[in-house]
Amino acid sequence: MRVGPLYSVLLLSGQFLPVVLGGWLAARHAFRLPSNQRLPVGISLGLVLFVFFSNLFGRWIAPNWSFWVSAVGVLLIGGLAWLINKGQLLEKEDIQVWPQLLMLGVLILLLTQMGRGLAIFDDRKNLSLISLMAAGDIPPHFYMNSEFLFSYHYGFQLLGASLMRNGGLFPWSAFDLSKGIVGSLAILMGFVWARKTSRSSWGGIAFAFILLFASGARW
User: Fold this and answer.
1) How far apart are CA 174 and CA 105, in angstroms?
2) Which residue among 55, 124, 214, 217 is least packed, with the fewest CB closer than 10 Å?
3) pLDDT tens-digit profile, the chain (219 residues)
4) For the residues of 54-82, what is the DSSP string, one character each?
5) Which of 86, 79, 20 is CA-nearest to residue 49?
6) Measuring CA to CA, which residue among 49, 35, 55 is closest to residue 78?
7) 149 by DSSP, 3-state: which?
8) Count of helix runs (H) and strand runs (E) in the chain
9) 3-class DSSP state for residue 141?
10) Cis ω for the linkage preceding 140 (within 30 of 0)
C-alpha cells in the first residue's frame, strides 16, 4: 500500500482524531453505556457521523474541506452532548479497553491485507466512485452515464474518497483500507453486543469469530 508524503499521513491522522474524540464524547454523554463500551461504540458512532456529514457537506464545498468540516462536525456533536449532559467530560475508565483496541488494530491490518485485490471484478464501480468523490462529485454520478446520479449505496467508497483525498492513497488502496476499517468495526460491535447480551466475554469472542468466518469464503 503506497501513501503520499509524510504530511499527508499526519493530515489524515489529524482528521480522524476529532472523529474518534467526538464519537467517544457522544457515546459517553448521549447514551447510558458502561465504561468498557463507550470508546468502541464511540469510534463506530464517530465514523458513521463522519460519513453522513461528508455526504451532506460534500454537496456544497470542496472535498478536502468537506472532510475536515465533517470531522469537526463530529467533534461538535460530541461537545454538544457533553454540554447537555453536564457531566464529567471523559472518564479514565473508558480507556481501559486496550484488548478491544488491540483487537481492532489487528483486525484492520488483517482484513485489509486479506481483501487486497479481491474487488478486481468490481473495480469499474468502486474505483470510479472513489475517484469521482475525491474529485468533488458528491453525491456521485453514475460512472457509465454521467447524466444520472449513482442510485446505490456508496458509504465505503465515500470513506475511501476521504482516505484518498487527504491521505494520499491510491483509489484501490483507499478502498481496501476502508473495507478493512468498517469490517473490523462491525466485528468489534458484534463482540460488544454479544458480550452484553450473553453477559460473558467468551460469548462475545465466540460471536466475533462467527461474524468473521460467516462473512464469506475468503476468510
Assistant:
1) 17
2) 217
3) 444 466 666 777 778 899 999 999 998 988 888 888 888 999 999 999 999 999 999 889 988 888 999 999 999 999 998 888 877 777 777 778 888 889 889 988 988 888 776 666 666 788 888 888 998 888 888 888 888 888 888 888 899 999 888 888 888 888 888 888 998 999 999 999 999 898 888 888 898 888 888 866 555
4) HHHHTTTS-HHHHHHHHHHHHHHHHHHHH
5) 20
6) 49
7) strand
8) 8, 0
9) strand
10) no
Which of 108, 90, 114 shows the shortest CA–CA distance to 27? 90
* CA atoms of 217 and 174, how far apart (whole Å): 23
CB 47 within 8 A of CB 23: yes
- 44, three cell numbers: 463506530
Residue 18 CB coordination number (10 Å): 22
CA distance 38 to 29: 9
Cα–Cα distance, 122 to 110 (Å, whole number): 21
Contact between 108 and 184 under an 8 Å Cβ cutoff? The reply is: yes
